[in-house]
Amino acid sequence: MTKGEYDVVLLPGDGTGPEVVREGRKVLEALLENSSSRLHLTEVQGGAQYYKAHGSEWEPGGRERAVKADAILLGAVGWPGVNLPDGNIAGHGLVLGMRSGLDLYSNVRPCKLRPGVLHRIGKEFKQVWRPQDVDMTMFRENTEGLYAPAHGELTRGGTTEVVLDTRIITLKGSERIIRRAFEKARATPRGAPEDGARRVTCVDKSNVLKGCQFFRATFDRIGKEEFPEIERDYAYVDAFTQWLIRQPEHYHVVVTTNMMGDIVTDLASSLQGGMGFAAGGNIGDEHGMFEPVHGSAPKYAGKNQVNPIATFEAVGMMLDWLGERFHDRELIALRDRLEASVTRVLAEGSARTYDQGGNATTSEAGDRVAAAVREDRAAKGPGKLEMAA
Ligand code: IPM
Ligand code: MN
Q1: Angle (deg, nearest 10), helices 237-246 and 258-271
Q2: CA–CA separation, 115 vs 112, rounded Å?
Q3: Residue 267 C-alpha to ligand 2 middle, in angstroms?
Q4: Which residues does 171 contact at the CB level (< 8 Å), separation at least 6?
Q5: Any bridge partners for residue 138, and if so which?
Q6: Which ligand is nearest to the CA of 142?
Q7: Reading across the β-sheet that carries 38-43, which strands appear in turn?
Q8: Which residue's CA is the nearest one to ligand 1's atom 12?
Q9: Which residues approach ligand 1 with their CB closer than 6 A?
Q10: Which end of the chain is more exposed for a tag (fewer CB within 10 A), N or C?
Q11: Cα 78 to ligand 1 centre (Å)
């Protein structure tokens, strides 16, 4: 069903989160001008700084509004020295709480390098990998593994002697993330940059860990039975870290468990120009929450310096997900327009923030992409959208 009207909750959160969400909103509003799609944007305050000031992680009723929304755009959470009584970072509820509370079991993190983006290796900014060699999507299991709430400690006579983090790998959790990964491989017209093969790589440590042996066996079974035309590929996580950097062109879709996915997706962001470009979708069967992966970056908070591109990528993923979910081709067309605009601005190098060796501010980069969106509409006209509708 096409709704045409959608409720989107913005959760700016902490540190640089509000700065990038502000730019995301700017670009989204530029996209929505003259569009028949209506996205109603509501901001909800919360996170560690909110907790510090008010003693709760969410503004009153905020969590309920986020749960009811059609989609959520999250900035970042976390602030040094602000923790919950249980020791978790304050703001935990907005990220990990929503991931488990809304059963957002797929953490989908595309890693694509666009022309014009530089790599910072050592002190230099230069292009190390070629854009045509970096185009993969990582699927990180998002509700279990080492993040499952199976932690504990043994304290005797006031001394903590043993702490435990238990890694939970379930049949249901493994099957569903593995299926989403194979479906992605099946749905993409082109496979890995290296050879065009549609390939899913299972990243694990099955030479040592029981849970990984089970994860890999499940991967094999689902791959063989349900996706026989997709190539199955395997990597131990330690070896994977160097193959990823040395031969990114081999990878098309990658699937892995929660903690390993946390680590390898940060590493993968180096290929795409750094954390300023990495976006992720936390996706379940009923809910979606989209975010830049970079975190709250306290050092840069309030300075209008960080790169907002990852947030624009997150907005694009959100439009894509909403468009698919509600069969709304106008949203897909808006996603395409955003994609074309970001690609153009990056190729021109006209909005390089400090992490790219440039001096554009966060808001200038947002202005530039919003302008590109309007220019794209002026050049192509609304006709493209009507045709798509
Ligand atoms: C991420 C982050 C989170 C995680 C933190 C903020 C809890 O690092 O989204 O990758 O560990 O999953
Ligand atoms: Mn992380």
Answers
A1: 10
A2: 10
A3: 10
A4: 214, 218
A5: 109, 254
A6: 1
A7: 38-43, 5-13, 71-76, 288-292, 279-283, 106-112, 135-141, 253-256, 199-204, 231-236
A8: 262
A9: 78, 95-96, 262, 293
A10: N
A11: 10
Prediction pTM value: 0.96
CA distance 297 to 18: 11
State which ligand 1 atom lies nearest to the alpha carbon of 258. 12
Nearest ligand 1 atom to the CA of 265 is 10
Amino acid at 301: A
Residue nearest atom 9 of ligand 1, based on CA coordinates: 293
DSSP state of 132: G
* Domains assigned to the chain: 1-109+278-389 (3.40.718.10), 119-272 (3.40.718.10)
State the closest ligand 1 atom to the C-alpha of 99, by its place in the atom list counted from 1. 12
Ligand 1 centroid vs 272 CA: distance in angstroms? 19
Angle between helices 309-325 and 362-380 (to 10 degrees): 50
**Closest ligand 1 atom to 76 CA:** 6
pLDDT (tens digit, 9 = 90+) per residue, 130-162?
A: 999 999 999 999 999 999 999 999 999 999 999
Distances, alpha carbon 17 to alpha carbons 46, 73, 176, 292, in Å: 11, 10, 30, 9
Most ligand 1 atoms within 8 A of CB, residue of 16, 96, 108, 262 to mutate: 262
Note whether 275 and 313 are within 8 A (CB): no
Spatial separation of the C-alpha atoms in residues 288 and 107, rounded to whole Å: 10
How far is the centre of ligand 1, averaged over its atoms, from the C-alpha of 165 (Å)? Answer: 16
Neighbours of 363 (CB within 10 A): 14
